[in-house]
Every structure is written in structure tokens, then in C-alpha cells.
């Protein structure tokens, strides 16, 4: 659809419209790259599709994608029927994605969120708060299970902390102009060492 709009903008000869569409294409590409990074992290570090009795990787990815769109495209459709605070998307990711589990196999569902929303406690008047169009992905029936456990709770903690750090570094570099830190220089986790622990 973006290509169709770009073609229409070129046909009209409007430089402003064309540059606007190109800017949205760049944002779309950047959001897609961030989603693919997140997808790879989940695939690499979570060895089970079911990490909770309430959520699974598919749900986490869906709410993460909706949150990315609300961050990169913070304009809403004119025909939006129901608007919600944009920060609600972040809270959905925080509650549906994996948690950092404590070093105790008895407390499976306790711990800190693996994805932390920032800026939620800032004082804003309700009318100043950014509103987004409410988006619902089709809910899936989630299997109720006791949850699969990875071998070591310490490994799970390290993995989820790495995911959190990666997300924070990625978005802090986006907001600071792109010249920030990069995780490319960090060494990869040696899987044989991880299995031994």
C-alpha cells in the first residue's frame, strides 16, 4: 500500500508529499528491523512456545508489533472508532511477554517484566496524553499447561536480562539520534557453557 501511495505522490509531482511518504517508508523499514531483532531474540532464548499459562510467544509478538507501530507511527486514523492511551500498548507488551524469573524453581510466574515501559509515571493531564487507535489482534486459545521449564533458572534470568538490555539500547539509540551504543560488539552466548549451568 505504501508503494501505491508513493506512486501517486510521484504522479502528482508533489515533492512534499513524496518526501513524507519516503519518511514513512524509512520508519516502516526501521520498525520492521526492530521487530525482526525481537523475533530473533525470542527464537534464540526461549526454547518453548508456552512460557505462561496466560500467554505464549505468538501473543507476545502480536502486542510487541502493535506497540512498535504506536511508537513509530504515532498518528491515528481519522476513522478510528475507539481511542486508548498509547501507553496501553506498552503495558500490554510488559504483561504478555516473558518475565525475569527469580532463582527459585518454585516461583515460576514471579519476577520482574522482561520488557519495562518507561515514562509511565510522568505527570500529564488526561487531555494531553497521546491517544492511539485501539487495535485488537485476533485472540487465540491459549493452552493451559503447567508451563515448560528451561534447564536452569539462572540461565533464564541471564537470557531475559540480555533481552531487556538489547531492547533498551535499541530504543535509546533511536531516540538519541541513532549514534548510540550497539550490541553488535558484544560476544555471543556460548551455548555449551549455558547448557553446563
Write the layout of secondary structure elements.
Elements: H1 2-12, H2 15-45, H3 57-72, E1 83-85, H4 87-96, E2 99-100, E3 112-113, E4 131-133, H5 153-175, H6 191-196
Antiparallel strand pairs: 1-4, 2-3
Helix pairs in contact: 1-2, 2-3, 2-5, 3-4
Give a verbal description of the structure.
Its main location: membrane. One of its GO terms (biological process) is calcium ion import across plasma membrane. The C terminus is likely disordered. With 197 residues, the protein is mainly alpha-helical. Strands 1-4 form a two-stranded antiparallel ribbon. The protein has a two-stranded antiparallel sheet with strand order 2-3. Helices cover 49% and strands 5% of the residues. Helix 2 packs antiparallel against helix 3, helix 2 runs antiparallel to helix 5 and helix 3 packs antiparallel against helix 4. It has one domain.
Summed up:
The protein is mainly α and 197 residues long.
The secondary structure category is mainly alpha
Order of strands across the biggest sheet?
Answer: 1-4
- Mean pLDDT, as a whole number? 64
Specify the biggest β-sheet: 2 strands, antiparallel
Estimate nothing, just give the exact number of structural domains.
1
Percent of residues in beta strands? 5-15%
- Alpha-carbon Rg, integer: 19 Å
Count of DSSP-assigned helices: 6
User: How many strands appear in the DSSP assignment?
Assistant: 4
Terminal residue distance:
49 Å
String of helices and strands: HHHEHEEEHH
Q: Which stretches of 5+ consecutive residues score pLDDT under 50? A: 137-152, 179-197
* Helical fraction: 40-55%
Instruction: Tell me the overall shape.
Output: globular
Amino acid at each position: 500500500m505504501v508503494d501505491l501511495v508513493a506512486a501517486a505522490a510521484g504522479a502528482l509531482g508533489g515533492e512534499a508529499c513524496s518526501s513524507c511518504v519516503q519518511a514513512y517508508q524509512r520508519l516502516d523499514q526501521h520498525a520492521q528491523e526492530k521487530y525482526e531483532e525481537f523475533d530473533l531474540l525470542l527464537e534464540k532464548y526461549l526454547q518453548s512456545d508456552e512460557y505462561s499459562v496466560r500467554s505464549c510467544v505468538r501473543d507476545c509478538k502480536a502486542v510487541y508489533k502493535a506497540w512498535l507501530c504506536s511508537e513509530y507511527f504515532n498518528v491515528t486514523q481519522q476513522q478510528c472508532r475507539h481511542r486508548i492511551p498509547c501507553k496501553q500498548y506498552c503495558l500490554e507488551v510488559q504483561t504478555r511477554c516473558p518475565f525475569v524469573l527469580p532463582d527459585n524453581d518454585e516461583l515460576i510466574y514471579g519476577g520482574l517484566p522482561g520488557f519495562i515501559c518507561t515514562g509511565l509515571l510522568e505527570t500529564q493531564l488526561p487531555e494531553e496524553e497521546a491517544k492511539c487507535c485501539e487495535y485488537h489482534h485476533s485472540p487465540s486459545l491459549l493452552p493451559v499447561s503447567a508451563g515448560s521449564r528451561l534447564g536452569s533458572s539462572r540461565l533464564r534470568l541471564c537470557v531475559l536480562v540480555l533481552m531487556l538490555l538489547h531492547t533498551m539500547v535499541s530504543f535509546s539509540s533511536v531516540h538519541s539520534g541513532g549514534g548510540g551504543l550497539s550490541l553488535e560488539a558484544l560476544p555471543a552466548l556460548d551455548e555449551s557453557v549455558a547448557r553446563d549451568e
